[in-house]
Automatic annotation (TrEMBL), chain A:
<feature type="domain" description="Electron transfer flavoprotein alpha/beta-subunit N-terminal">
    <location>
        <begin position="4"/>
        <end position="187"/>
    </location>
</feature>
<dbReference type="InterPro" id="IPR029035">
    <property type="entry name" value="DHS-like_NAD/FAD-binding_dom"/>
</dbReference>
<dbReference type="InterPro" id="IPR018206">
    <property type="entry name" value="ETF_asu_C_CS"/>
</dbReference>
<dbReference type="InterPro" id="IPR014730">
    <property type="entry name" value="ETF_a/b_N"/>
</dbReference>
<dbReference type="Pfam" id="PF01012">
    <property type="entry name" value="ETF"/>
</dbReference>
<comment type="similarity">
    <text>Belongs to the ETF alpha-subunit/FixB family.</text>
</comment>
<dbReference type="InterPro" id="IPR001308">
    <property type="entry name" value="ETF_a/FixB"/>
</dbReference>
<dbReference type="Pfam" id="PF00766">
    <property type="entry name" value="ETF_alpha"/>
</dbReference>
<keyword id="KW-0285">Flavoprotein</keyword>
<dbReference type="InterPro" id="IPR014731">
    <property type="entry name" value="ETF_asu_C"/>
</dbReference>
<comment type="function">
    <text>The electron transfer flavoprotein serves as a specific electron acceptor for other dehydrogenases. It transfers the electrons to the main respiratory chain via ETF-ubiquinone oxidoreductase (ETF dehydrogenase).</text>
</comment>
<keyword id="KW-0813">Transport</keyword>
<keyword id="KW-0249">Electron transport</keyword>
<dbReference type="InterPro" id="IPR014729">
    <property type="entry name" value="Rossmann-like_a/b/a_fold"/>
</dbReference>
<comment type="subunit">
    <text>Heterodimer of an alpha and a beta subunit.</text>
</comment>
<keyword id="KW-0274">FAD</keyword>
<protein>
    <submittedName>
        <fullName>Electron transfer flavoprotein subunit alpha/FixB family protein</fullName>
    </submittedName>
</protein>
Amino acid sequence: MAEILVLVDHADGAVRKPALELLTLARRLGEPSAVVLGAGEAAASIAATAGEYGAATVYVADGAEFADQLVVPKVDALTQIAQDKGVAAVLVTSSGEGKEVAARVALRLGSGLITDAVELEAGDSGPVATQSVFAASYQVKSTVSHGVPVITVKPNSAAPEAAPAAGTVENVTVAFTGNAAKVVSRTPRVSTGRPELTESAIVVSGGRGVGAAEGFGVVEKLADSLGAAVGASRAAVDAGWYPHSNQVGQTGKQVSPQLYVAAGISGAIQHRAGMQTSKTIVAVNKDPEAPIFDLVDYGVVGDLFAVLPQLTDEIGAR
Amino acid sequence: MTLRIAVCVKYVPDATGDRGFADDLTVDRDEVDGLLSELDEYAVEQALRISEESDDAEVTVITVGPDDAKDALRKALSMGADKAVHVNDDDIHGSDVIGTSAIVAKALEKTGFDLVICGMASTDGTMGVLPALLAERLNLPQVTLLSEVSVEGELVKGRRDGDAATELLEAPLPAVVSVTDQSGEARYPSFKGIMAAKKKPVEELDLDDLGIDADEVGLAGSWTQVGEVTARPPRTAGTIVTDEGDGGKQLAAFLSSQKFI
């Protein structure tokens, strides 16, 4: 059976959810195998999780290089394994770094590259990837016509499903090529206790209508009642009310949750580009003419400072 | 020694226009007005700031694109770049990012540089991988997705704010850098800048000048193939209610019916 190589993204010694989604998708294309890089002592437990989600083999490589140098060591490892094992496709999470790694691997393998797939199916001549483009106004189906397909997949493109497989660990010694930028220091982002924006099943976002940094209190309370991540429109971020790391839109994060709640967001193209692929969209806005209402499954015309707390209370009462 | 900074920019269809696809399933560049990709303005800005900090620097802006792409170069020149290179050849039409990176890499080699600066992604394709591909092709360190960048002697330094961590990076020159929209507001061209830009040199290059065979690039040389493009059906109109004191409760009832709560 065709071997589908999945780069397993991990943080704090645990597998990140998008990697489980990739393993789930990989099973549609062939037999998944996982690549775990620079995980140190956590490698064994990460490999076990990968096995639970269908990885027959888990290639493990370690070394200070993975932490000390940017991107290139991962490219070295993934390329080497893909070549040695003669895999049928390589899947990587569509994060900033994931896309950079995938691109360089594709070039080294002499392969075509597709980024930001939101759906992946087996086709007659290899995987067929669906992308959502131009602020989600078009769906594009593409294939790789040269080399081993290298595809990055957006978080939330599939629901992770366990499918236990052997998860046999194979240790790999990587020949590092160097010529990478040096990572002088790394400061983990302080956890807010909320899910990661791009990975969360529910996102609650605030915009210009929130009015002030303090106004985000009602947005955060609703998010916490739903176990959701908090997002912000560019207007809210530019005004300094919320950190840029939470910006949803063309120049921020692109999210695709099961549920997107837009509070006080008008729905300009800049914002739509970041959230239009959300499965269910609801909005609360004072302005009945706000373009966001063209996108919603359910909309409330009203004051978010009245509607959001009432909704939060209702959720708390259930 | 002059610090030679090369900025890679792209001419893209305006995101506020009605973007779509041509019959050959490439991006339609005729129906919608184009402009310098907003995210590339940040790259031009950082190049100008580094140039201003340096005793002796020269900023060259490079694009690959059809005739109209000259508008993107003019914008960058009016912001303050010194000169421009325009790679323009009918055979480039339909290139994928692997092909485009081959063309840009050759154009950079021909132009000469100590530092390459790119935006974090184009606003049309939004892949964000060209800088990494340039680093791979030119065998240089990539110092990418920076929200802060500086050149100190023979080193380029920067801060990369990732999903999980903030990293401080450094690499020796020459290197390939990309900057995010957090790197600093891009300046508006002044009237003087716009007038001066008209006199700045724009070098025209085609594939022959770069020693690239036509069949290595373009639609035929692309390693990916678009099979199908479909306009997303408009979302079915949702339910809109006006809050009359129970809007939150109604929303809760909807979320409950959809099993979110």
